[in-house]
Amino acid sequence: MPGHLETLLAFDRQYQRDQQQSPAFLHRRDRRYALDRDEGHTPDIHHWLTQLQALNDTTASSYPPELRSWQRFAGAFISLGALLGIVTMSGLLFYDGGQQINITVILGVILLQLVLALFTAIQGLAGWQPWAPLMHSLQHRLEKRQPSSALLPLFSPMMARTAQAAGLAFGVAGLMTLLTSVVLQDLAFGWSTTLETSAEGWHRIVSWVAAPWSAWLPVATPSLELVADTRFFRLENASAGTDSARWGAWWPFVAMAWLTWTVAPRLLLLILATVDLRRKSRRALHHHPGYTALLWRMETPAVETGSDTPDSGQLPADTAADTVPVPHTPLVVCWAGASPESALPTPGSVPVHAGGSQSLQADRNALEALAGRREPRDRELLVLTRAWEPPTAELEDFLEDAATQLPGITLTLLPLATAPAQRPSYLQLAQWLRFANRAGQGIRIAAKDHGEHNHDGH
């Protein structure tokens, strides 16, 4: 089955599982995935699903049960089409020695197959679902569950694709039966009709049928003489006055007519049905209720406001008492565009930049640069932030990575006000203190004028 169907069903299953998670968890998870991707790459749903399956320790190659049941049905339908092709062609080529094989009947069957192929293609493109109730009932009885809601809009193109594949199997099996009969039997073809049809009129009909190959395969194009010689009537001895070899000269025409007007249209329409199914399954994925929400979570920064914490309605009693002095350290990070002007505690220290529009790999490179320049006496990492911007989940992830790559380091955040000499407001410091309390890792919040309020330190 097309990969888009598997992706659609896997996404729908993940969407159903995500309904049990909190929006904050989903936002943080999907935003981190988006930052982990290289810049300029659009979200890849298949890669996103693979990453989640790897994190959940599940098998990425598990085939959806809905498609497995449909695959069994399609295989049975295609096998039935092949069997019907063998039986049909064997019936058309039946010859008891007293009456020729009628070309008229064979052309009638070819025309019927062409009409059925076109009707199936129109039904699939238009979205008609005449067999939907029967298929849903059959699947419910066999699988003991209702079909997936994600597949309901795609039932029509899926059925059209299966029907075209069964028609192609019918045509190929019929052609192989014809060629086998030509080798193993002495077939005698002719044409007969109750209507008053002249040899010239019938020759024009077969010439129209043979038009696609008449220019490069003249042996498969019946001549007027062959048409005139091989007409027979039911109650007459058709062999009288006609060379016996003439009755078998029709087989190249029959083979090419079957190949051109039965097998080739089915093959082309099968390709069209496959492309249409992929297009509609891709559109169904983009219109899935969870797809837009996923893109929003990937594109929107996750902001920690503290509104879902037990102390969200409370502020620390004394922010000055909970802050610490700005540590003197050469290890400084400017987070999300924070300006280091007049904020560097150690003259000559060169800060690194992280967060904001930078990729996750760039943040990792910044930490590697700090680890490379770290001296044994350096025990503090100072992270400059913008006080007026709420702390984000990306910052918490960065601090976790910093604690891992710089073992034994003390993490200190310094929220900066809009003006270099200005102290952040009481509410701004409060949100950063709540963030440090929730994040753990021994994170401290520093204030530039801490000494004016609390000379005892932390």
UniProtKB/TrEMBL annotation:
Transmembrane residue ranges: 73-95, 101-126, 165-184, 249-273
One Pfam family recorded for the sequence: DUF2868
Top-level lineage group: Bacteria
Record keywords, A-Z: Membrane, Transmembrane, Transmembrane helix
UniProt protein name: DUF2868 domain-containing protein
